[in-house]
Amino acid sequence: MGGQKRFVDKLQMVFDKNLYDPANEPDIAYPYIFSYFKGEEWRTQKTVDALLKKYYTARPDGIPGNDDCGTMSSWAIFSMMGLYPDCPGSPYYTLTTPVFSKVTLHLDKKYYPQGDITIETDRTSPSQLYINNMTLGGKALSTYRISHKQLVDGRVLKMSLKK
């Protein structure tokens, strides 16, 4: 596509020209692709927030398209928790700004004996969109992608947001 900048520009154009269609399910990973490029992670955070506000509401038509086996609902829940499995079959998550201040995932101890996973943020206002820094298991993260193993082993993901 002509390099990173041209790719990011073309991807941004999809959103700028309102070509993104969450009901066309292959599109749902698009906002997370920005995070594959160092320095562009903020676009994922901004875009996911805007898409949640635009397409997911408490109205009867408050979910886009057909919620095939929970696809649209799952996108919203993962996005609101602050992590998304953007590539099927690949055990990685892209991180974004959580909507909630704390989420606890209760894991089946049969498969995950180390216990639950907690995602925490210091978000005090919906206007706080951008991640300032993150830790997983008390260790600083320098990337916006983590493996499932890292998440399970780290158990506590903390995100500090820019004020």
Largest beta-sheet characterization: 5 strands, mixed
Number of helices: 5
* N- and C-termini, Cα separation: 35 Å
> What does the overall shape look like?
globular
Order of helices and strands: HHHHEEEEEEEHE
* Helix/strand class: alpha+beta
Instruction: Kindly report the spatial arrangement of strands forming the biggest sheet.
Output: 3-4-8-5-6
Cα-based radius of gyration, to the nearest Å? 16 Å
**Helicity level:** 25-40%
Poorly predicted ranges: none
Overall description:
This protein has a five-stranded mixed sheet, with helices on one face. Strands 1-2-7 form a three-stranded antiparallel sheet. By secondary structure, it is of the alpha+beta class. The protein is globular and about 45 Å long. The protein is built from five helices and eight strands. The protein has helices spanning 4-16, 30-33, 41-55, 71-81, 148-154, and strands at 83-84, 92-95, 102-105, 117-121, 131-136, 139-141, 145-147, 156-161.
Reconstruct the topology from this structure.
Blueprint: H1 4-16, H2 30-33, H3 41-55, H4 71-81, E1 83-84, E2 92-95, E3 102-105, E4 117-121, E5 131-136, E6 139-141, E7 145-147, H5 148-154, E8 156-161
Parallel strand pairs: 4-8
Antiparallel strand pairs: 1-2, 2-7, 3-4, 5-6, 5-8
